[in-house]
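User: What would this chain look like folded?
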Amino acid sequence: MWKEVIRRMQLQKDAITLSDADFLRLIEEKGDSFYRVAYGYVRNAEDAKDIVQEAVCKAYVGKARLKDREKFYPWFYRILTHTAATFLRRHAPSVVWAETLPEAAVMEEERWGDTIWVQDSLSRLEAKSRTVIVLKVYENMTFAEIAQILKKSENSVKSLYYRGLKSLKERMRVHGG
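Assistant: Here's the prediction, encoded as structure tokens.
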């Protein structure tokens, strides 16, 4: 009897543990998405890469604490958004949203101002609202997925999203947009 119980516990432990190969595969599957989320925070390619790299390192070190491998992506996005927010707090004076202007040079000239305005407006939003908007708009996630990532109720996420959109609309109205 005890052997069977121990065998079942070992099987459960093996099922929970995420192998290095599985971890790498999961990271590679959504690497572009991770980069876009980080870039949505800092608007700088090199800083976004650094944030993703740091989040991957943190996740790798903590992967043994992941209880359910089905929740890997919400768990990782949470690490990623916290890492990005921490980066912004540490580097607030040096993060310049308009640094994307050289990348925007590919765009038509008349759209440059709009691009800079949107980046500036997003940077002025409350961090939680900005996170929800970036995940919803740029990553096309559902409110349920975002709620799981942020460990909030779906209604709270919707509230943050609509509050952020309202703030953007008010800013647009004030600045003649």
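Residues 94-102, 104-110 have pLDDT under 50 and may be disordered. If you want, I can go into more detail on any region.
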